[in-house]
Amino acid sequence: MKKIIVGILILFCGLNIQAQNDVELKLTLRDGNVVSGTSKMASISLTTSYGKLEIPIKNVTALDLGITSDKTTSDKVINLIKQLSNSNEQMRKTSFDELVKTDIKAIPAITDFIYSAKYEPSTYTDYTVDGALLDLQSKYNVESSISDKDVVSIDYEYSMGGTYDFAKIDLKTEYGTLSIPKEKIKHIDVMYTGDSGSGDLTFKLLATKHISSNTAGGWLKTGIMLKQGQKFTITASGEVSFASLSGSKYKPDGSIAGAAAAISDYEGDYNAGGSYPAYGNVVYKIGETSTQTLKAGAKLNGVAASSGMLFISIYETVYNVSNTGSYTVKISLK
């Protein structure tokens, strides 16, 4: 991610369902459950302070949902918090009980108010606003650090923060269509499957990060779901330099330039016809837990041996953050 732009108002304005593209969504709910299903959409309408954008769904990689309050909830919360200072114990108890019965939108409303200049802490310690907040966070399985901003990730490089304006998501699953309220959703992974004859996507593999031996984010999650037997094409261009290999420069086909090319031990690395990956090759795997590192090189016309998400990386057995350069990788679905 390059940067997070906060304060941008993001409006779904309804999920555009006029598209012909099947999009698989994986929803991580706040209660820990994960629900997967499909929908049909072309883009997400994005309204920012600079104007309205239509972001193609294939460029949206993930959505993180914060918790946003509204005026009605805020007004109710403020009134109940003030009652916690009432001299009547029963009134304090009733207000406390009402506070912990409110919906999840009360959490940011409480937090905003107690950190505002208008808040005056109660002198009573039996029914406290802090206790009510902890009860609500436990009830809805919400961390104390939860943001009131939603975040959309685009092309695995950019993030924008703001508020999604939708009440629920209708998800078609193997058990039927489910309508899941926004407040129950914590995170959404967007997995673009594409249609027959379409679905060209372009990614950038960074030598400073996307190295197969990097255990912390070395494999780029494309969001592309492949089905067993599905045909796909991977083409790559660019040049990277590996700090662990004397700063030599490599291309996606594994060809070498620089110091390493003059060392005889490296002569066998470049093997355009071999099936085993060489240093600098673009490699791929199907499924996040897969242990197979498969060679793509500069161009591959492949057939998915199994079903799952497509991941890509640059092959190197040693990861060094001082690497430089990048590859541009285009993936086409057949």
Description:
By secondary structure, the chain is mostly beta strands. The chain folds into 3 domains: 4-66 and 149-192, no CATH class; 71-133, no CATH class; 201-333, Sandwich (Jelly Rolls). It has 4 helices and 21 strands. A 7-stranded mixed beta sheet has the order 1-8-7-6-11-2-3, with no helix packed on it. Strands 12, 14, 15, 16, 19 and 21 form a 6-stranded antiparallel beta sheet that branches. It has a 4-stranded antiparallel beta sheet with strand order 13-20-17-18, with no helix packed on it. It is elongated and about 85 Å long.
CA-CA gap between termini: 29 Å
Q: How many helices does DSSP assign?
A: 4
The tally of domains stands at 3
For CATH, the homologous superfamily of the largest domain is named as: Galactose-binding lectin
Question: How does the SSE layout of this entry go?
Answer:
Blueprint: E1 4-5, E2 22-29, E3 34-40, E4 43-48, E5 51-56, E6 60-64, H1 71-83, H2 89-101, H3 106-114, H4 129-139, E7 150-154, E8 158-162, E9 168-173, E10 176-181, E11 185-192, E12 201-206, E13 220-226, E14 231-242, E15 248-250, E16 256-257, E17 282-286, E18 294-295, E19 299-303, E20 308-314, E21 324-333
Helix pairs in contact: 1-2, 1-3, 2-4, 3-4
